[in-house]
Amino acid sequence: MPKILNCFEIKNETEQSADLYFYGDIVSDWWGAWDEADQYPDAVKNFLAAQEGKDLNIYINSGGGSVFAGIAIYNMIKRHAAKNKVQVIVDGLAGSIASVIAFAGSEPPKIPSNAFLMIHNPWTSSEGNAADLRKMADALDEVAVGMMNIYDKHLREGVTAEDVKKLMDAESWLNGEQAAKYFDIEVTDAVEIAAACGDYILNSADKSKVPKGLFEKKQPQGAEKPNADEEKAKRETAKARDAVMRSYIKMITQ
Fold this sequence. Notes:
Layout: E1 3-4, E2 8-11, E3 17-22, H1 41-50, E4 55-62, H2 67-81, E5 86-95, H3 97-101, E6 110-112, E7 116-119, H4 130-152, H5 161-169, E8 172-175, H6 176-179, E9 186-188, H7 199-203, H8 228-252
Parallel strand pairs: 3-4, 4-5, 5-7, 6-9
Antiparallel strand pairs: 1-2, 2-3, 7-8
Helix pairs in contact: 1-2
């Protein structure tokens, strides 16, 4: 089974089509990909170039990540979808910016009745004086408008931009059937699959709104329990990556 840049697993590749899995966090570039499953725009660009002229099935099970990287990925897939059939399937969770990527196909995304679309306002951490913080707040508002512009293209008839704004303000977790009330999606039968929990969900999401069981990690029978030191190292690595991203956002908004 071939891999590209240790980020994408391609299955069922033929001369006409290929399957692509988004099963990690969305990060800005290769140095931000602390895990093999993390994805970034340059890797997507290379993958799409290799699949020129082919139809794609894209599977999503991601808690999201970098807004700018996610929007870049959305636009690249949309360009591919303008010439080829691209079907997006949400296997477990399309959360945060991954919910934007879910709408990048040429067809309405397929979401099982027990899978989730999570949308919310963009967030970050910042430091500085009052003027710095007001500038960051204005930048976040502009990013939210960019996300809403994408959602607005995929609304069901009768649903307004104000309806979507309320969902974003409330940090909304919508299963397939609930999401179909607002967006043009195809609801499919429920499937049993563990949803991905990215850094945002583990560290910053409103835990009272996260669907029950999302944090539970199913272990195969007889599997060893996660090593405590390894789990701690992963958390520290995630915090370091978050710090880098905060510095990056502050730099580009100054």
